[in-house]
Amino acid sequence: DTAVSQTPKYLVTQMGNDKSIKCEQNLGHDTMYWYKQDSKKFLKIMFSYNNKELIINETVPNRFSPKSPDKAHLNLHINSLELGDSAVYFCASTVINTGELFFGEGSRLTVL
Amino acid sequence: KNEVEQSPQNLTAQEGEFITINCSYSVGISALHWLQQHPGGGIVSLFMLSSGKKKHGRLIATINIQEKHSSLHITASHPRDSAVYICAVIGGNQFYFGTGTSLTVIP
Prior knowledge:
The structure holds two protein chains of two kinds. Chain A has strands at residues 4-7, 10-13, 19-25, 31-37, 43-50, 53-57, 64-70, 73-78, 87-94, 102-103, 107-111. Chain A is mainly β. Chain A starts with a strand and ends with a strand. The model of chain A has no long low-confidence stretch (mean pLDDT 89). In chain B, 0% of the residues lie in helices and 62% in strands. Chain B contains no helices and eleven strands. Chain B has strands at 4-7, 10-14, 19-25, 31-37, 43-49, 52-56, 59-64, 69-74, 83-91, 94-97, 101-106. Chain A binds chain B through residues 33, 40-45, 48, 55-56, 88, 90, 92, 97, 99-103, 105-106, and chain B through 30-31, 33, 35, 37, 41-45, 48, 84, 86, 88, 93-95, 97, 99-100.
């Protein structure tokens, strides 16, 4: 079983649409993250959830909203998509303060 | 200026060479991660360090908290080590990433 799984892996959509990317981890970790990797391959953290509470919220547009229905899931909702939202989005999980990050395979979003 | 600086940005080595990638950071941190991203795009965590040194196979990571510096060493490099290596630090509740070092190991 994949430790951290993201769906969909590829998403092509029009500007202005609303879309979601789902993330699930089966590791029993207490902290999950969303990262954005832009065309220059630069990684930037977007959100972190620890025990269903937001503990990091970088200055991302409020069109992006994380939703965590339970400790094993952290979904990313994006409203009114813009061209600049095209990127690869990675989900990751960890046991906070103990270390290893486990990443999903990434979801490549293309906004046309 | 980025809070995390990596050097070199690009590195080409012959198979078997000893490789060092450096990471310097300017913020107080609770931990530092070394990540590996292969051409296929997947990201793997190699190490998390808060002090000292860790070794896993041919990979060694060190950190000097006083100097705010970490190094990743690869001994007996192999073409399968070709990837982008990313340094990331956790300071407060903030995550900061280096821009990555692209390593190519030639047979």
